[in-house]
């Protein structure tokens, strides 16, 4: 649950600050997050589609409320634990579980549905459909199912023309399981950076979903929801005709991978890791900080991009980027900060005890290392709230 920190009406200020917070700590700039949410919400409204945010990144009811200030809306999750958490702590009832269904997890999914949640599961095989239908026959509530469509060869799903698409839908119908529709994820978009290529990926995603939906409808199946989504394609789609909803997750915070793709600017990144300088190796031009891979994660998602940001881009205490300064290496609890290769700049003089903030490669992976967000407003120093994060599967 959220712990909101208030200053007393009189006497000295007692709010914690970034200058005194124990490090490492996960810091969330609420103003930047709100701008990011408003941006994608406006895009969805312009295309007249539902935005179903993927809360696998945030994993926080308090963060979700910044998207849905008027009450719970439609969400996507990546674990059944997330579905249970958001239903229990936030009252969310319209939930899509967008990971392929493990037959062993069917009873748990049906229990969530029996609690009053409209839980929609995802599958792409006859075996999964059969397992869900068999268990659903004696269950008090049934989960509708999406059939996942492979739009770019990135991961799972059936191709739109695969005969198993109709066979799987038939198996769902035989088991009394409603077909929610089709769902795609344009994961290959994460390897792109050209705006036209990203727009083409979004269009390929749209066409694949519509083709699969048409095949199902031609075979006599209703296909009410056509769900597409990745953060890059959600922002670069030029045409969403026929699509009913868009899913995206990291858009709330963004990260260095998204900046490298061109989805956002560095100034849009809302998540940082607060760290402290704990040493210096002058002979190696190293600065040591207390944020290693346990705080930053081992994600090196920018290594394949035009600009390799190491384990993260270094900022001052107020979130201003220090040019060319990166976390070049990461041990468990030590980060090694140095100038990026080829830089003509000198290593800055950062005395022991200096507070820094690290912009992460992958907000989902970095967030997963922490139990809570320390929330600030813009470049403010004061921590205005602590938002807990859920963990587990």
Shape: elongated
Task: Tell me the strand order in the biggest sheet.
Answer: 3-10-9-8-7-6-5-4
Looking at CATH, the homologous superfamily of the largest domain is Alanine racemase
What is the CATH topology descriptor of the largest domain? TIM Barrel
**Mean of all residue-level pLDDT scores:** 96
Number of helices: 11
User: Number of domains in the coordinates?
Assistant: 2
Strand residue content: 15-25%
As a percent range, the share of helical residues equals 25-40%
Radius of gyration: 23 Å
CATH architecture descriptor name of the largest domain: Alpha-Beta Barrel
The unreliable regions are 1-11
Protein name: D-serine deaminase-like pyridoxal phosphate-dependent protein
Domain D-serine dehydratase-like: 270-377
Keywords: Lyase
GO molecular function: D-serine ammonia-lyase activity
